[in-house]
Amino acid sequence: MLNALGLIGLTTLLAPWLGRVLDARAGWLLALAPLYGFVWLLGQMPVIAGGGAVVESIAWIPALDVALSFRLDGLSLLFGLLVTGIGTLIVLYAGSYLSDHHHLGRFYAFLLGFMAAMLGLVLADDLIAMFVFWELTSISSYLLISFQHERAASRRAALQALLITGGGGLALLAGLILLGMAGDAWQFSALSAAAIEGHALYPAIMILVLLGCFTKSAQLPFHLWLPNAMEAPTPVSAYLHSATMVKAGVYLMARLNPVMGGEDGWGSILVVVGAATALVGAVLALRQTDLKRILAYTTVTVLGQLTMLIGTNTTYGLQAFVIYLLAHSLYKGALFMAVGAVDHATGTRELVRLGGLIRFMPLTGAAVALAAFSNAGLPPFFGFIAKEFKYAGLIELGPLGWATTGVMIVTNALLLTAAGLVFIRTFLGRQGAYPRTPHEVSLPMWLGPMLLAIGGFLLGAFNNVAEVWLVDSAVQAVARGAIPVNLYLWGGITPAVVASMITVSLGAFVYLKRQAVRHWLARWRRVWQVSGDLLWDRLLKRIFIIAGQVADRFQHGSLRQHVALLAVVGAVFALLGTVLASSHGARLPTASPLSWAAVAGCALAVLGAAGAAMMRERIALVTSLGASGLGVGLFFLAVGAPDVAITQIMVETLTVIFLAMVLNGLPVVQVTGARNSRRRRVHLAVSIGFGLALTLTILIAIGQPLPGDLAAWYLANSLPGGHGANVVNVILVDFRAFDTLGEILVVALAGLAAALLLHRDDNAPAQGKLAHAEFGSVLLRQGLRPLAGLLLLISLVLLWRGHNLPGGGFIGGLVAVCAAVLIALGYGVAQARRMLRVPPSVVAGVGLALAAGAGLFGLADARPFLGSAWLFPGGLPLGTPLMFDVGVFLTVFGAVSHMLFRLMEKEV
Amino acid sequence: MEIVAAVTAGLLASIGVWLLLDRNLVRVVLGIVLLGNSINMAVLTAGRLDNRAAAFVSANGVPEFAGNPLPQALVLTAIVIGFSLFVFALAVLRRTWERHRSTATDRVTEVAEAPAPNLDEKTS
Q: How far apart are CA A117 and CA A124, in angstroms?
């Protein structure tokens, strides 16, 4: 089972390539995959017919108890044979049908992908796995309907189908989860009727699951996507939209019938919805003149009837379900393929232009004749048995059944008329006015319909074979208890036979009087104006409008409103939190003694910030921002964080340089604050509220004792575990190195992104001013070089000693950038680049590679990624953390220099 | 000390948000820097300030009043990342000025955004 599924999946991946290399001939090779599946399934028949099941399973998400478990029983076997058997023929057919299409390989891939999904769907035993396959069929259907995506109608039909089936899929997912909870089992085979039918959740489960099934199987009122899906190439219509995918909903209802079908509601809903769908489909079919659309509406009819038959839950009804399912897939697949052949040969599918085709296309015509007879339910075809049993099953049902039988007689009569239209009107009678001179189609195109049609005939004629090998086990899988299965063509004069006779005569009558009937139908103009498609378009438009309105509310494009909203929400929740915490007895912290240096730092930080907020001169702005940052650095130094302080001071230096460089090209800061004074007050309140919230949050947080002893652990383990005295550095490059790796990645990415933005832009208005970056003073220029060299040396020392003393990769990298700044300012960027020899972006890349590479040592040693490894040459501890720190150094240096050079190049 | 630090962080945050709410993109960029500094102070303060010896250990053992090293490590990287963000913001500022000759935030949105495509034309 897994082999067959895997093979088809693999073929999907190979298809585009094969399609390119072999063109249409690829079909013969690709068809081998479904053929293999078909043969394998045939080989399982004895096991299944003997009442057994084939089970295979692999764990998928063990934590959630989701397994890829597959189970082959009678129902799966029936569907699996249809999927693989018709699939084989369709792959061959598609090769000829689309032989001149330039994306044939892609088409094969979509088709085989669908096949794998559909086969998975019918074989899956796990609820969630089944759902995943279910959605995959929807997606592949979307891709296939929109295959000719250059046409707007195809795109619209594809989207409509996806939205309707996808929406139903959401309901189904909810239903399946509830089902799994109610049944306390996630396998179809493990669910029990006793657990589910009495459960309080049963109504919800039923409605949700049925929504999924009805949308997928195009039941009223969700049927409208199916006729529109005929925009797809004909192989798709034949395969997905008549034989397989649209039957997925029916399949699921049949699959769940044994565990959910006992309640009254289930049966009534299925019978009523099914019968209504069947009637509407049949009436609408007669109004069509396009052969494909006629077939599409008759498919809707059949899907309705199948749904109805599950709902009957009678001996004959369920037998009829299985036979009809099989018969329909065979004849409808054949008819669709034949219509595609007619279209291919004559260039039209319009009834009025067709007729007398049997002379040109005898083989296709013969196949259509056989299929249409089965479609019309005439003996001795399989469709006849299906119809007889259908009536018998409905009559068994009692009053509801009698009423439904009446509806079904009309429906089946109309089906017969439609079958007449497809065969007699197209192939017999006067020669039509074809756009092209017709010719018989090639072997792969008539082989499919012929085989399917003959299959329908043989199954009917030798119905005891079908009964023993296929129908019996499938019926048992659908039924709630054991059901005796006994197929026959002639069972004497029964009510069913009488109904059948009425059907045939009525159908023949309607066919003969079809023009009159059409005219009569057309008189009901009011009714036809109620178009589901029109409603759908209006609904979709409304949804877009509402979505647009909602989006406009939040995506107003005003940066300030976004920031204000974020700040308000953050502040409100933080304040709520502090209020809540203080009501639980949280107190302000006991103040530790003041450090005057720290207080001075704080004062400088606030004053600088206030200055930056108030001043407009560019130099003043840069200076006060720098002062503020230095104040923060002083604070860090005073509270015992030397590494942080050095980093802050280095960053602040670079911030000032970068800011000065950019502001140099901009005008004086003109506007400050909002013009509107009311808005100014609001902004002021938001700012103060945010700051207040932050202050209170910190105070409340540190009022509590520090939970855990993380700090103590790091302090205690730094030297023995990390061979470093500088605990902060050991944390960065060893204990929490993975964190650091992510952070330097961010630094590198930001560098690349900023540099891209700063790339010379030819579209931009020309820069008016050409500044010279180099200093004029010779003395200064001579002095710069040794100074830069010294800085570079210092940066290396800082890097080396960082593990034990203040320093490290980050600080070293920033100091090295300062050296680069000096060189670039003094001698120009071009000179700086020459001296560096390697592009800075490459340096950053090498740094990242070193840092990540240092992690691999741990992996090689079967320890976690970035686990440290040490060597002690001559008692000197050398380890991967040093390598990692070098990586940090290079990344920071490379990324920042990259941005710096780009920015300065722009300046010149 | 904690109270002073917390109030400072709050004040810096207030000024930062005030600048972020400005119409001028230059001041927005300054606001990003101040807000970053404020949050860094807040994180370090949240690690408690009662022990103010630098977190350096020796073979003789752990110093008695060693500060909490974890927030320091977090803040150290945060400073560098904040700097990268700042330079990126500067690049955006620079680019905006070159493209649109304007640094007013709301005005930039008007000139930079293309009108939404009309869906009706495609489907009909």
A: 10
Domain that holds residue A908: 726-761+769-908
Tell me if A480 is assigned to some domain.
Answer: yes
Q: What's the token pair of residue A225?
A: 């996507």
CB within 8 Å: B94 and A727:
no
For residues A431 and A869, what is the distance between their CA atoms, to the nearest angstrom?
87
Between A596-614 and B25-46, two packed helices, what is the crossing angle to 10 degrees? 160
**Which of the listed residues A509, A543, A577 is the one where a domain comes to its end?**
A543
Query: Which of A305-319, A837-851, B109-123 is predicted most confidently?
Result: A837-851
Cis? peptide before A221, omega within 30° of 0: yes
* Cα gap A212→A175, rounded to integer Å: 9
* Minimal Cβ distance to A671: which of B24, B93, B124: B24
CB neighbourhood size of A540 (10 A): 16
**DSSP summary character for residue A878:** E
Place of tokens 């925009």: A231
Q: Do B81 and A602 touch (CB under 8 A)?
A: no
Answer yes or no: are the C-beta atoms of A356 and A430 closer than 8 Å. Answer: yes
Token couple for A170: 């959401």
Comparing CA positions, the residue from B86, B23, B2 lying closest to residue A670 is B23
Among A543, A560, A580, the domain-final residue is A543
Number of domains in chain A: 2
Q: Which residues contact residue A841 at a Cβ distance below 8 angstroms, ignoring those fewer than 6 apart? A: A751, A752, A755, A894, A895, A898
Which residues, including other chains, have CB under 8 Å from residue A824's CB and lie 6 or more apart?
A: A773, A831, A832, A900, A901, A904
Amino acid at the residue A223? H
| CA atoms of A124 and A72, how far apart (whole Å) | 8
For residue A133, tell me if it sits in a domain: no
β-bridge pairing A66-72 and A54-61: antiparallel
Q: Do B54 and A625 touch (CB under 8 A)?
A: no
CA dist., res. A375 & res. A479, Å (int):
25
At what angle are helices A152-183 and A247-260 packed, to 10 degrees? 10
The per-residue pLDDT for range A677-731, each reduced to its tens digit, is 888 888 899 999 999 999 999 988 888 887 778 888 888 888 888 888 888 999 9
Closest CA to A643 of B9, B80, B50: B80
- Give the integer Cα–Cα distance in Å for A361 and A894: 73
- Local structure of residue A504 (DSSP, 8 states): H
Which two three-digit tokens encode residue A335? 């008819």
Residue A765: pLDDT band (50, 70, 90) is: very low
B55 touches chain A (CB under 8 A): yes
A220's enclosing H/E stretch is none
Residues of chain A in contact with residue B107, where contact means CB-CB under 8 angstroms, are none
% of chain A surpassing 70 pLDDT: 96
Q: pTM (2 decimals)?
A: 0.68
Residue A223 inside a domain? The answer is: no
From chain A, the residues in CB contact with B75 under 8 A are 636, 641, 644
Q: What per-residue string of b and e applies to A343-363 under the rule 16 or more CB within 10 Å gives b?
A: bbbbebbebeebbbbbebbeb
- Domain annotation for chain B: domains and CATH numbers: 2-52+65-107 (1.10.287.3510)
**Is the peptide bond prior to A380 cis by the omega test (within 30 degrees of 0)?**
yes
Q: B9 CB near a chain A CB, below 8 Å?
A: yes
Encoding tokens for residue A421? Answer: 């239209």
Note the pLDDT tens digit of each residue in A775-827.
567 777 788 888 999 999 999 999 988 888 888 899 999 999 999 998 888 88
Q: How far apart are CA A302 and CA A376, in angstroms?
A: 12
Q: CB-based burial of residue A587 (10 Å sphere; 0-12 exposed, 13-18 middle, 19+ buried)?
A: exposed
Give the pair of three-digit tokens for residue A577: 């939190």
Distance (Å, whole) CA A118 – CA A97: 22
- The answer to whether residue A249 sits within a structural domain is no
